[in-house]
Amino acid sequence: MLRRRTARLLVVLAAVCALGAVLPSAFAAGGLSISPAILEHRAAVGNVGSVVVSNTASTSLKITVTPRPWRQARSGAVSPDRSKTLRSVVGVSAKSFTLAPGTKRTVDVRLLRKPSGGALYAAMEVVGKPTKKAPGNGITAQYRIISSLRLTAARARHGVRIGDARVSGKSAVVAVRNTGNTVDPVAGSVRLVGPRGTVNRSIAAVRVLPGGIVDLKLAATSALPKGSYTATISLTQGGAKVASAKRTFRR
Amino acid sequence: MRRLAAIAVLAGALAVASPAAALARDGVEIGGTVDATLGLTVLDDGPSVFHTEITSTVDATRLTVAGSPGLGVTAAVGSVFQPLGVPIDPLLRSWSGPLASEPVTISVGGHAKTSDPYLLITVSAQTP
Asked: What is the pTM of this model?
């Protein structure tokens, strides 16, 4: 009797396993996704690619697609400037549409005119708002996914200008302006001569918007005794040395 | 009956593993590229929490939130609550490297002061 029950239980378990493999996650909550997360293309007027917007939520989503310029903090982190759009430069085949649950839509992206400087780096903002208000706490969750649009110049130009070194928060940093037309990572090395001798450190790679200024971290202040320092900085971008400079700062 | 049960279990397991098993049997090499993806899933919401999952294949990812105007609440991942409605959306968390269904719980503090409140949960690439 016990064996029969066990056998029945095994049959049920097997059926559940099989169903789990066959059925989509009908009861799973869902959300919004976009692909590719980075759309990279030569900055030529015309079609530059497309993004696929997928609604995996259990409710319809009202989708808006908006290209916006980036704002870059001195840390290097970027966020889209929500007060501006780039619709005069970048066009999308569908600015606003409703996406049913479990469906996806391809949105074509076009460059409408050649950007100044030959390149354009922008945010592609996709917002999904549920068409039905969520039950529960009364606060409805809305989705926003921000991908990166990289429209590169026909000829890449690398270059940075090294500014002042200083202590900012818990780090010694040096300000660096990207004078080129790419967002290829800027990295390098620094030799710090201070009260207790010389230390050599690598500078972590950071992508800097063309014309933008970012603070590159030289060292944590916890590793630097108080005193005066001379930093000999060497920076590379796109696999080549682009700048070097000597800067002094006090800790 | 036991034999039947064993066959059923095997069938269930095969249903789960059949695509991979078929490819391995035929000696097919799998290759190709997959487009980078950013995805946000809200699993459920309670009175003061949103359970989410984040998928990302970009180098660095950040999670920020914004609220409807005048929402008057704070939000946190962990214990440090930050006000919404400030000019720069508060950064709740950031990651370097890819994420596969990374679970993140967003806590909301205070009571909504608007009639149609929403929380705009944002997943973005951290580098341009």
From this structure: 0.79
